[in-house]
Amino acid sequence: MDERMRSRARDVKSAFRALEVLELLTREGRALSFAECQRALAYPKASLHGLLHTMAGARWIELDSVSKKYELGVRVWEAGIAHTKMFRLETLARPIMEQVRDATTETVQLAVLDGGEALYIAKVDGEHILKLDSSVGQRLTAHATGVGKVLLASLPQEELEAWLKTSSLQRFTPNTTTDRRKLRRELELVRRRGFAIDREERTLGATCVATAIHNHLGKCAAAMSVSAPAVRFGAPQRKTALAHLRHAASKLSKALGHSPSK
User: What is the pLDDT of residues 143-166, one digit of tens each?
Assistant: First the structure.
């Protein structure tokens, strides 16, 4: 066998093993430690470590910094955007999001964090003719959105600092926060209050309020928002929407296995 054929055989073997990792995490339906993965797959430890590192770097899987366990990553979500009902979070979230929409009459969105961007994975349109221009699969820079600020605020401090050092903090409107010190203070406020507000920071005329969804590990798995044109979404309307969002977030987090003690 010449070198080209051997290289092709190694690539096929690596691809097969990566698929087996995804199948294992899907089948188990929970985060797994390195030792659990190694026992289940029986790969050499050095090979498995390299494989998991590569897959985590590409965000097909995710290593939780607290539990040190691997779980399915956001790329799995993105690859299945056309079939989002296959995913537990979107399936569980949709009826709850519809309840929030019915209570507020405004658009409800669900997003996850991917590489410093808010990736929208579900949306329920509001009842008004004047609506926000957004869609499932859309990516928005996290620092300029309500859901994005909730997701950034949930990051471990070292991960947040690493993101801040590399992010350009692009300005989209006069209201966009581009100063790192100011953004740090705002994210700390989001952590304390448990919600974030977008005051026309990404798009002039559009505002929202957002809160976190937690999974069985107590980790922020997603953020849910109520969004509306600023002309009809002042402080009283945001307060009402936040009350409905908090109730919905509690229900969805509970459905994901979260308990307040975690």
Answer: 999 999 999 999 999 889 999 988
Long-range contacts of 180-186 (CB under 8 A, 24+ apart): 183/143, 186/149
- At 237, phi and psi to the nearest 5? -70, -40
The matching CATH number, chosen from 3.30.499.10, 3.30.450.40, 3.40.50.300, 1.10.10.10, for 81-255 is: 3.30.450.40
Residue ranges for the chain with pLDDT beneath 50: 1, 5, 82-86, 262
Residue 173's closest CA among 140, 135, 219, 126? 140
Q: Classify residue 40 by burial, with Cβ atoms within 10 Å: 0-12, 13-18, 19+.
A: middle
pTM, two decimals, is 0.67
What is the CATH class of 3-72? Answer: mainly alpha
